[in-house]
């Protein structure tokens, strides 16, 4: 292996699908009414360990889709306007539009619209 080869490569795109990454945003919406949430509590809400590579990858994907702010090193994770609209849309048209925008944000083809979990309010 050459000395100039990077040990790790950075992906310019999310490693997870929009639906997978949206679990982070949906957890914030469902568990903290869309308000910024402690990173450890977000991990617990989706039944992952905060230090696990799976959680870190999901968090990174959610950030790259533009659904949340904050990284694995942040104390809190917050929904962006796009994340808020995707997890609590006013109507089906808004949900479809924001799913499309999130797909474009990652630089790939549009995915099927994300359907948030049905929580009782």
List the helices and strands and how they pair.
Elements: H1 18-32, E1 37-38, H2 39-45, H3 53-64, E2 68-69, E3 76-79, H4 81-87, H5 92-105
Antiparallel strand pairs: 1-3, 2-3
User: What order do the strands of the largest sheet run in, or round the barrel if closed?
Assistant: 1-3-2
Biggest sheet record: 3 strands, antiparallel
Spatial shape:
globular
Percent helix, as a range, is 40-55%
Q: Brief description of this entry?
A:
The chain has 121 residues and is mainly alpha-helical.
Description:
The protein has one domain (18-105). The protein contains five helices and three strands, in the order αβααββαα. It has helices at 18-32, 39-45, 53-64, 81-87, 92-105; strands at residues 37-38, 68-69, 76-79. It has a three-stranded antiparallel sheet with strand order 1-3-2. A hairpin with a 6-residue loop joins β2 and β3. The longest helix is centred in the first third of the chain and has 15 residues, at 18-32. It is globular and about 45 Å long. Mean pLDDT is 82; it is low at 109-113.
Keyphrases for this structure?
single chain, 121 residues, 45% helix
